[in-house]
Amino acid sequence: MSPLLFIFLLHIITGAATHLRTGYYSGVCPKAEYIVRDVMWRALMREPRSLASVMRLQFHDCFVNGCDASLLLDDTPTMLGEKLALSNINSLRSYEVVDEAKEALENVCPGVVSCADIIIMASRDAVALTGGPDWEVKLGRLDSLTASQEASDNVMPSPRSNATFLIDLFSKFNLSVKDMVALSGSHSIGKARCFSIMFRLYNQSGTGRPDPAIEPKFREKLDKLCPLNVDQNVTGDLDATSVLFDNQYFKDLVSGRGFLNSDQTLYTFPQTRGFVRQFSIDQGTFFKAFVEGMIKLGDLQIQQPGEVRRNCRVVNALRKS
């Protein structure tokens, strides 16, 4: 990691989050959290997978420039945004759910609720509405005036990442090993593409062979889902209960049935294995650790100019009247 990138990451974790607080909109837009949850409920009814997709937005937004909705900005002639970054292109989705929440909020409280806060509220709601824990979120973020594809490419991990890399990455944001394992439990809901596991099935570490950590029966299932000639956009469930937020994800890792390399490595690596075992046995402990990690993740800030966008895809100065 370059010294400049390290300084940038340090700037994010030391950025002031002291202005964030629960109930931030209670006086100026008291129905804000209700409106976002209603939009997420309707998204769940239309397409259950969309809630997992929205939850992922918090991770991909907060890790890059702090939680500032930079992820949501479309490219412009003078700016390459983050949507087409290596870890996001053909992977992140359901931006339209955030658009729907923003439109609903603008109808009631124009120019008040930031897109960055919508991501935080919607991520919490994605968990709560699929059977996971519920919690109060701290709000009061501003939206960025720019985005950076390069910054995203330099920070976000790939599905090939191992536990050592993930521990190092999360530590740059003052997130502990326990935080990292718990937050990986976000993969309790959702799907991933065959593209992300082809190397695991057919050429792990350049051996020309599958990953030996994959349980044999599960590997047979994955071979059928993702043969060599597959359309690599075909998707598979991230765990055995992919529309229910629970601790099945960790049970699957213990049995060698993790979908992604970056998931299964959490059990094969000694420093993270104990947390995987603990969370696989005690769902309440997992839920508590997950909430703590999400709150820490939501606190990531960088001191920079900002605004409350009226359209999450474009800065206000570029909006068409």
How would you portray this structure in words?
The protein has 321 residues and is an all-alpha fold. Helices cover 48% and strands 2% of the residues. The protein contains 14 helices and two strands; from the N terminus they run ααααααααβααβαααα. It has helices at 3-13, 32-46, 49-65, 95-108, 115-129, 149-155, 163-171, 177-184, 198-202, 216-225, 248-254, 261-268, 270-281, 283-298, and strands spanning 191-193, 235-237. Strands 1-2 form a two-stranded antiparallel ribbon. Helix 2 (32-46) crosses helix 5 (115-129) and helix 13 packs across helix 14 (283-298). The longest helix is centred in the first third of the chain and has 17 residues, at 49-65. The chain is globular and about 55 Å long. The relative contact order is 0.17.
Task: Name the helix and strand elements from N-terminus to C-terminus, one letter apiece.
Answer: HHHHHHHHEHHEHHHH
Biggest sheet statistics? 2 strands, antiparallel
Q: Radius of gyration over alpha carbons?
A: 19 Å
* Alpha-carbon distance between the two ends: 43 Å
Question: What oligomeric state best describes the polypeptide chains here?
Answer: single chain
Mean pLDDT: 92
Helix/strand/pairing category: mainly alpha
Low-confidence stretches: 1-8
- Give the percentage of residues in beta strands: under 5%
Number of strands: 2
Helical content class: 40-55%
Taking strands numbered 1, 2, ... along the chain, how are they ordered across the largest sheet? Answer: 1-2
Determine the number of helices (DSSP H or I, runs of at least 4 residues).
14
Shape: globular
